[in-house]
From TrEMBL:
Pfam families for this protein: RADX
Lineage top rank: taxon: Eukaryota
Protein name as annotated: RADX protein
GO MF terms, alphabetically ordered: single-stranded DNA binding
Coiled coil segments of this chain: none
Organism: Serilophus lunatus
Amino acid sequence: SKLTNLGHLEMTWRSRMHFHPLLVRILHKSRLRYYGKPEKKVDMPYQAYFEVADSSGMMSMVLWSSLCPEWYHSMKVGTVLLLEEYAIKDSYPFKTLPTPGDSQMKRFATIEISLNVRNPPTKISIIPEEMVKPEWGLPEVKYRFITRSELDNLPHNHSCDVIGLVTFVGRAERVRKREHGEDFWLYRWAHAVDGTSDQPFILELFATSQPDVFEHIHPMTYLVCTQMRVVRNISEHPSSPIYLTTSNESQIFITGWHKGQPYTKDTKVKNFIQWTKSQSEVRQIKKTVIGGYYPFPRPPDDLSKY
Protein backbone atom coordinates (compact mmCIF):
# COMPACT_ATOMS: atom_id res chain seq x y z
CA SER A 1 0.00 0.00 0.00
CA LYS A 2 1.00 3.65 -0.30
CA LEU A 3 3.13 4.61 2.70
CA THR A 4 3.90 7.98 4.23
CA ASN A 5 6.85 9.02 6.42
CA LEU A 6 7.20 11.02 9.64
CA GLY A 7 8.64 14.11 7.93
CA HIS A 8 5.70 14.27 5.51
CA LEU A 9 3.23 13.82 8.38
CA GLU A 10 4.65 16.81 10.23
CA MET A 11 4.17 19.04 7.19
CA THR A 12 0.67 17.92 6.19
CA TRP A 13 -1.13 16.60 9.30
CA ARG A 14 -3.35 19.68 9.89
CA SER A 15 -4.84 19.46 6.41
CA ARG A 16 -5.76 15.76 6.57
CA MET A 17 -8.23 13.56 8.42
CA HIS A 18 -6.87 10.19 7.30
CA PHE A 19 -3.23 9.22 7.00
CA HIS A 20 -1.41 6.66 4.88
CA PRO A 21 0.18 3.72 6.71
CA LEU A 22 3.51 4.22 8.49
CA LEU A 23 6.46 1.85 8.65
CA VAL A 24 8.68 2.61 11.68
CA ARG A 25 11.25 1.06 14.01
CA ILE A 26 11.03 1.45 17.82
CA LEU A 27 14.21 3.10 19.17
CA HIS A 28 13.12 3.83 22.77
CA LYS A 29 10.42 2.58 25.10
CA SER A 30 9.11 4.17 28.31
CA ARG A 31 7.83 2.40 31.39
CA LEU A 32 4.09 1.74 31.53
CA ARG A 33 2.19 4.55 33.24
CA TYR A 34 -0.99 4.04 35.28
CA TYR A 35 -3.10 7.20 35.49
CA GLY A 36 -6.25 5.82 37.16
CA LYS A 37 -8.05 7.85 39.83
CA PRO A 38 -10.98 6.77 42.03
CA GLU A 39 -13.29 9.54 40.74
CA LYS A 40 -12.59 8.78 37.04
CA LYS A 41 -14.18 5.72 35.51
CA VAL A 42 -11.66 4.59 32.89
CA ASP A 43 -11.58 0.87 32.08
CA MET A 44 -7.86 0.61 31.32
CA PRO A 45 -6.05 3.76 32.55
CA TYR A 46 -2.67 2.86 31.04
CA GLN A 47 -0.32 4.75 28.75
CA ALA A 48 3.17 4.18 27.32
CA TYR A 49 5.46 6.31 25.18
CA PHE A 50 7.72 5.04 22.44
CA GLU A 51 10.17 6.87 20.20
CA VAL A 52 9.84 5.54 16.65
CA ALA A 53 11.85 6.41 13.54
CA ASP A 54 12.02 6.01 9.79
CA SER A 55 14.45 7.41 7.20
CA SER A 56 13.13 10.97 7.76
CA GLY A 57 13.60 11.20 11.56
CA MET A 58 12.16 10.29 14.97
CA MET A 59 8.79 10.99 16.62
CA SER A 60 6.94 10.05 19.82
CA MET A 61 4.20 7.41 19.67
CA VAL A 62 1.68 6.96 22.49
CA LEU A 63 -0.07 3.66 23.24
CA TRP A 64 -3.35 4.14 25.11
CA SER A 65 -5.75 2.20 27.35
CA SER A 66 -6.61 -1.40 26.47
CA LEU A 67 -3.98 -1.46 23.70
CA CYS A 68 -1.32 -1.39 26.47
CA PRO A 69 -1.95 -4.84 27.99
CA GLU A 70 -2.40 -6.20 24.46
CA TRP A 71 0.73 -4.73 22.82
CA TYR A 72 3.18 -3.28 25.37
CA HIS A 73 5.33 -6.40 25.89
CA SER A 74 5.40 -7.24 22.17
CA MET A 75 6.72 -3.77 21.28
CA LYS A 76 10.42 -4.07 22.05
CA VAL A 77 13.29 -1.73 21.23
CA GLY A 78 14.20 -2.65 17.64
CA THR A 79 10.71 -3.91 16.68
CA VAL A 80 9.43 -2.79 13.25
CA LEU A 81 5.76 -1.74 13.13
CA LEU A 82 3.25 -1.14 10.35
CA LEU A 83 0.68 1.36 11.65
CA GLU A 84 -2.72 1.98 10.03
CA GLU A 85 -5.67 4.14 11.12
CA TYR A 86 -3.73 6.09 13.75
CA ALA A 87 -4.30 9.66 14.96
CA ILE A 88 -1.88 12.63 15.02
CA LYS A 89 -1.99 15.11 17.90
CA ASP A 90 -0.02 18.04 19.26
CA SER A 91 2.82 16.71 21.37
CA TYR A 92 2.44 16.68 25.16
CA PRO A 93 5.02 19.26 26.29
CA PHE A 94 5.95 17.84 29.73
CA LYS A 95 6.97 14.27 28.93
CA THR A 96 10.55 13.10 29.30
CA LEU A 97 12.64 12.61 26.19
CA PRO A 98 15.34 9.94 25.83
CA THR A 99 18.76 10.84 24.45
CA PRO A 100 19.01 9.32 20.95
CA GLY A 101 21.94 7.01 20.22
CA ASP A 102 22.34 8.80 16.87
CA SER A 103 22.88 12.51 17.62
CA GLN A 104 22.39 13.37 13.91
CA MET A 105 18.84 12.04 13.77
CA LYS A 106 16.14 14.66 13.24
CA ARG A 107 13.49 14.79 15.98
CA PHE A 108 9.91 15.83 15.17
CA ALA A 109 8.89 17.22 18.54
CA THR A 110 5.72 19.21 17.77
CA ILE A 111 3.39 16.25 17.12
CA GLU A 112 2.98 12.65 18.26
CA ILE A 113 1.32 9.50 16.93
CA SER A 114 -1.64 8.36 19.05
CA LEU A 115 -2.66 4.68 19.01
CA ASN A 116 -6.11 4.08 20.45
CA VAL A 117 -8.77 1.41 20.53
CA ARG A 118 -11.31 3.82 18.95
CA ASN A 119 -11.51 7.21 17.20
CA PRO A 120 -10.00 5.73 15.03
CA PRO A 121 -9.37 2.08 15.99
CA THR A 122 -5.67 1.61 15.21
CA LYS A 123 -4.43 -1.42 13.33
CA ILE A 124 -0.94 -2.50 14.47
CA SER A 125 1.20 -5.10 12.70
CA ILE A 126 4.63 -6.32 13.84
CA ILE A 127 6.98 -7.04 10.93
CA PRO A 128 9.39 -9.94 11.72
CA GLU A 129 13.04 -8.82 11.48
CA GLU A 130 13.81 -11.33 8.72
CA MET A 131 11.15 -9.69 6.51
CA VAL A 132 12.49 -6.13 6.95
CA LYS A 133 13.97 -4.89 3.66
CA PRO A 134 17.04 -2.60 3.41
CA GLU A 135 15.25 -0.40 0.86
CA TRP A 136 12.78 0.70 3.56
CA GLY A 137 15.61 2.79 5.00
CA LEU A 138 14.71 2.14 8.63
CA PRO A 139 17.47 3.23 11.04
CA GLU A 140 19.28 0.72 13.23
CA VAL A 141 19.06 1.04 17.02
CA LYS A 142 22.20 2.79 18.30
CA TYR A 143 23.49 2.91 21.87
CA ARG A 144 25.77 5.08 24.01
CA PHE A 145 27.67 2.45 26.00
CA ILE A 146 30.38 3.65 28.37
CA THR A 147 33.03 1.79 30.36
CA ARG A 148 33.60 2.30 34.09
CA SER A 149 36.91 4.06 33.35
CA GLU A 150 35.01 6.68 31.27
CA LEU A 151 32.35 7.40 33.90
CA ASP A 152 34.42 9.74 36.12
CA ASN A 153 34.73 12.28 33.29
CA LEU A 154 31.01 12.49 32.47
CA PRO A 155 28.83 15.45 33.56
CA HIS A 156 25.78 15.29 35.84
CA ASN A 157 22.62 14.00 34.08
CA HIS A 158 24.57 12.63 31.11
CA SER A 159 22.68 9.78 29.42
CA CYS A 160 24.47 6.48 28.82
CA ASP A 161 24.16 2.70 28.56
CA VAL A 162 26.23 0.25 30.63
CA ILE A 163 27.08 -3.44 30.75
CA GLY A 164 28.75 -5.18 33.68
CA LEU A 165 29.08 -8.31 35.77
CA VAL A 166 26.94 -7.97 38.93
CA THR A 167 28.99 -8.21 42.15
CA PHE A 168 26.40 -6.85 44.60
CA VAL A 169 22.63 -6.53 44.59
CA GLY A 170 20.72 -5.03 47.52
CA ARG A 171 17.25 -5.78 48.77
CA ALA A 172 14.27 -3.99 47.23
CA GLU A 173 13.51 -0.71 49.03
CA ARG A 174 10.71 1.84 48.77
CA VAL A 175 10.64 5.61 48.62
CA ARG A 176 7.54 7.83 48.53
CA LYS A 177 6.70 9.36 45.16
CA ARG A 178 5.41 12.47 46.96
CA GLU A 179 6.14 13.60 50.50
CA HIS A 180 2.67 12.86 51.94
CA GLY A 181 1.36 10.56 49.19
CA GLU A 182 0.45 6.88 49.44
CA ASP A 183 2.32 5.78 46.29
CA PHE A 184 5.86 4.42 46.37
CA TRP A 185 8.71 3.86 43.94
CA LEU A 186 10.41 0.48 44.30
CA TYR A 187 14.19 0.39 43.77
CA ARG A 188 17.36 -1.54 44.59
CA TRP A 189 21.07 -0.83 44.51
CA ALA A 190 23.50 -2.91 42.45
CA HIS A 191 27.23 -2.93 41.71
CA ALA A 192 28.61 -4.14 38.38
CA VAL A 193 32.21 -4.39 37.13
CA ASP A 194 33.51 -4.36 33.57
CA GLY A 195 37.28 -4.80 34.03
CA THR A 196 38.25 -1.26 32.98
CA SER A 197 38.51 0.11 36.56
CA ASP A 198 39.00 -1.04 40.15
CA GLN A 199 35.71 0.70 40.97
CA PRO A 200 32.29 -0.78 40.11
CA PHE A 201 29.33 0.96 38.48
CA ILE A 202 27.01 1.94 41.36
CA LEU A 203 23.48 1.54 39.96
CA GLU A 204 20.22 2.79 41.46
CA LEU A 205 17.68 0.59 39.67
CA PHE A 206 14.05 1.64 39.96
CA ALA A 207 11.48 -0.98 39.03
CA THR A 208 10.60 -0.45 35.38
CA SER A 209 7.80 -2.33 33.63
CA GLN A 210 9.98 -5.48 33.71
CA PRO A 211 9.22 -7.13 37.08
CA ASP A 212 10.48 -10.51 35.83
CA VAL A 213 13.93 -8.93 35.27
CA PHE A 214 13.99 -6.58 38.28
CA GLU A 215 13.28 -9.40 40.74
CA HIS A 216 15.95 -11.72 39.32
CA ILE A 217 19.08 -9.55 39.32
CA HIS A 218 21.69 -11.76 41.02
CA PRO A 219 25.47 -11.67 41.49
CA MET A 220 27.41 -13.09 38.50
CA THR A 221 24.71 -12.16 35.98
CA TYR A 222 25.58 -10.00 32.95
CA LEU A 223 23.56 -6.82 33.47
CA VAL A 224 22.71 -4.32 30.71
CA CYS A 225 21.04 -1.02 31.65
CA THR A 226 20.08 1.47 28.94
CA GLN A 227 19.21 5.19 29.14
CA MET A 228 20.82 5.60 32.59
CA ARG A 229 21.55 9.08 34.00
CA VAL A 230 24.78 10.13 35.72
CA VAL A 231 24.30 11.55 39.25
CA ARG A 232 27.10 13.66 40.77
CA ASN A 233 26.47 15.37 44.12
CA ILE A 234 29.85 17.09 44.29
CA SER A 235 28.43 20.33 45.74
CA GLU A 236 26.66 18.56 48.63
CA HIS A 237 29.03 15.62 49.19
CA PRO A 238 32.42 16.27 47.55
CA SER A 239 33.67 12.80 48.46
CA SER A 240 30.53 10.89 47.45
CA PRO A 241 31.05 8.58 44.47
CA ILE A 242 29.27 9.04 41.15
CA TYR A 243 26.36 6.70 40.52
CA LEU A 244 23.87 5.98 37.75
CA THR A 245 20.09 6.02 38.09
CA THR A 246 17.33 4.77 35.80
CA SER A 247 15.25 7.15 33.68
CA ASN A 248 11.69 6.83 32.37
CA GLU A 249 13.04 5.12 29.23
CA SER A 250 15.52 2.75 30.90
CA GLN A 251 15.47 -0.92 29.98
CA ILE A 252 17.19 -3.60 32.08
CA PHE A 253 18.39 -6.99 30.81
CA ILE A 254 20.06 -9.90 32.61
CA THR A 255 21.57 -13.23 31.56
CA GLY A 256 18.89 -15.18 29.69
CA TRP A 257 17.35 -12.05 28.16
CA HIS A 258 20.20 -10.87 25.93
CA LYS A 259 19.61 -13.08 22.89
CA GLY A 260 18.36 -11.10 19.88
CA GLN A 261 18.71 -7.67 21.57
CA PRO A 262 20.15 -4.97 19.24
CA TYR A 263 22.96 -4.07 21.67
CA THR A 264 24.67 -7.46 21.20
CA LYS A 265 26.30 -5.99 18.04
CA ASP A 266 27.85 -3.06 19.97
CA THR A 267 31.68 -3.00 20.14
CA LYS A 268 31.85 -2.24 23.88
CA VAL A 269 29.45 -5.11 24.61
CA LYS A 270 31.67 -7.47 22.60
CA ASN A 271 34.77 -6.19 24.45
CA PHE A 272 33.06 -6.86 27.79
CA ILE A 273 32.19 -10.44 26.77
CA GLN A 274 35.84 -11.01 25.80
CA TRP A 275 36.94 -9.72 29.23
CA THR A 276 34.55 -12.06 31.10
CA LYS A 277 36.00 -15.05 29.24
CA SER A 278 39.42 -14.23 30.71
CA GLN A 279 38.11 -14.12 34.31
CA SER A 280 38.12 -16.87 36.92
CA GLU A 281 34.52 -17.51 37.93
CA VAL A 282 35.57 -18.83 41.37
CA ARG A 283 37.58 -15.67 42.11
CA GLN A 284 34.70 -13.39 41.04
CA ILE A 285 32.14 -15.30 43.13
CA LYS A 286 34.27 -14.67 46.26
CA LYS A 287 33.84 -10.91 45.72
CA THR A 288 30.04 -11.00 45.39
CA VAL A 289 27.46 -9.95 47.99
CA ILE A 290 23.66 -10.12 48.01
CA GLY A 291 21.01 -8.38 50.15
CA GLY A 292 21.33 -6.24 53.26
CA TYR A 293 20.90 -2.53 53.87
CA TYR A 294 22.99 -0.27 51.63
CA PRO A 295 23.14 3.35 52.89
CA PHE A 296 24.03 5.50 49.90
CA PRO A 297 25.24 8.20 49.68
CA ARG A 298 26.95 7.43 52.97
CA PRO A 299 25.98 9.74 55.85
CA PRO A 300 28.67 12.18 57.10
CA ASP A 301 30.96 11.03 59.94
CA ASP A 302 30.00 14.03 62.07
CA LEU A 303 26.35 14.58 63.14
CA SER A 304 26.80 18.38 63.00
CA LYS A 305 27.13 18.11 59.20
CA TYR A 306 23.53 16.95 58.81
